[in-house]
Design brief:
The chain is mostly helical. It is built from one helix and no strands. The protein has one helix spanning 2-49. The radius of gyration is 22 Å and the shape is rod-shaped. Keywords: Coiled coil.
Length: 51
């Protein structure tokens, strides 16, 4: 029983770490997408201003 409890706690910690890694990755990708979006928006605005 004690071993099982220990294993559950361990699994929980591992899951937390994986979740943290995943969240960091998603955040990083979102920042990148946002940066690209801003760049495209700027180019788009420039193009439209020439019309």
């Amino acid at each position: 029983m004690k071993k099982l409890i220990h294993e559950v706690i361990n699994n929980y910690h591992n899951l937390s770490r994986e979740e943290e890694k995943f969240n960091k990755k998603v955040n990083s990708e979102l920042k990148e997408m946002n940066k690209n979006h801003q760049k495209l928006k700027k180019e788009n605005d420039k193009w439209f201003s020439k019309l």
